[in-house]
Design a protein that fits this description.
mainly alpha; 3 helices; about 40% helix
Length: about 60
């Protein structure tokens, strides 16, 4: 069984561009917010990286 490429593209866009894997509730003691794992690294969305790449390849500033 093959999954149509349009479905794969839609899911990939939702996950990596829209950030559907972001902002959910931390439910248990074993769950950790990514900000606690990497406190010195700012959150940079993939869409910001793509925008920077498309506009002369300059890395985005930390927000």
């Amino acid at each position: 069984n093959r999954i149509p490429s349009s479905i794969v593209a839609a899911l990939t866009h939702d996950i990596f561009i829209n950030g559907c894997q972001f902002g959910f509730e931390i439910e248990g003691p074993q769950d950790t917010e990514v900000g606690r794992l990497y406190p010195d690294s700012p959150l940079v969305l993939l869409s910001h990286c793509l925008d920077a790449y498309l506009s002369n390849g300059v890395e985005p500033a930390a927000r």
